[in-house]
Write a structure and sequence with these properties.
The chain is of the alpha+beta class. It is built from two helices and five strands; from the N terminus they run E-H-E-E-E-E-H.
């Protein structure tokens, strides 16, 4: 899972953001790992979402890494980078 070639993006948020609440509103399954990390499943891809130094309930920025690529038959021809961008858009 993950690795140096895994798509990764940093996201700056406009203010303190409750990441689990955003994911819930978007209907995205996720599991809280600890107060600064969530694993999210989006279009069968698994994303590692980390917040430093803030907690996931009041994050100012995110680091999102594609840990596991989507199942090809469920990706609608999109690359992992495109799905990562789609996932990132839920935080706009």
């Amino acid at each position: 899972m993950g690795g140096s070639d895994s798509p990764t993006v940093s996201v700056s948020l406009s203010g303190p953001t409750d990441i689990p609440a955003v994911l819930n509103r978007a209907g995205i399954d996720h599991v809280s790992v600890h107060d600064r990390r969530i694993l999210a499943i989006y279009q069968t891809a698994i994303f590692n979402v980390t917040t430093e130094p803030d907690s996931v309930s009041a994050a100012h920025s995110l680091e999102i890494e594609c840990w596991e690529d989507p199942i090809p038959s469920r990706a609608d021809g999109k690359s992992s980078q495109e799905i990562l961008q789609d996932f990132t858009n839920v935080f706009d």
